[in-house]
Amino acid sequence: MIQKSVIEELVNQFLSTKKNENLFLVQVDVKPANNIEVVLDKLGGVSIDECVELSRFIENNLDRETEDFDLEVSSAGLTSPLRILRQYQNTLNESVEVLVKGGKKEKGILKSVDELGIVLAVDRQVKLEGSKRKQTIIEDIAIKMEDILQTKRVIELKKREK
User: Fold this and answer.
1) Residue range 128-145: mean pLDDT, rounded
2) CATH number of the domain at 82-153, please?
3) CB distance 27 to 73 below 8 Å
4) What was the pLDDT predicted at 76?
5) Do the beta carbons of residue 109 and residue 98 sit within 8 Å?
């Protein structure tokens, strides 16, 4: 079976020649029967041509005569969970939904991120002193990376005015 580290090394070799394009590796999986899946990302999205170029690079550097394989190179989709820090950084000031340990979901604007955690600006309904009704306030909440089970972008469609 082809080793995951071999594929990662080939991808990183390819990416080092593409520094100005800001492509980065999200994930490599090598499944039984040498089914290889490579997921790329970049700010603004990855083009089909970039996926094809990487696919050809990998194929040219592996020998099918020695070991046959299936290869799929794709981009992280808009609805794919964020997996690595760089994806979080590319999603700053966008709406996300975070599933944390315990099953609680938080939805808000991703305000900051580092290797330890994230800060979300979330809308909360609170009853302010002297007020009869609840009012919406924006509260920043910190979530540790170790407590995050999954984070996804929230696609918000705006209504078109007539």
Assistant:
1) 91
2) 2.30.30.100
3) no
4) 94
5) no
Compute the distance between CA of residue 146 and CA of residue 116 in angstroms, rounded to an integer.
8
CATH architecture assigned to 4-77: 2-Layer Sandwich (3.30)
Summarised one tens digit per residue, pLDDT across range 78-115 is 889 999 999 999 999 999 999 999 999 999 999 999 99
Per domain, the residue ranges of the chain are: 4-77, 82-153
| Mean pLDDT of the 31-47 span | 94
* Terminal Cα-to-Cα distance of the chain (whole angstroms): 58
| Burial of 71 (C-beta count, 10 Å sphere; 0-12/13-18/19+) | middle
pTM: 0.86
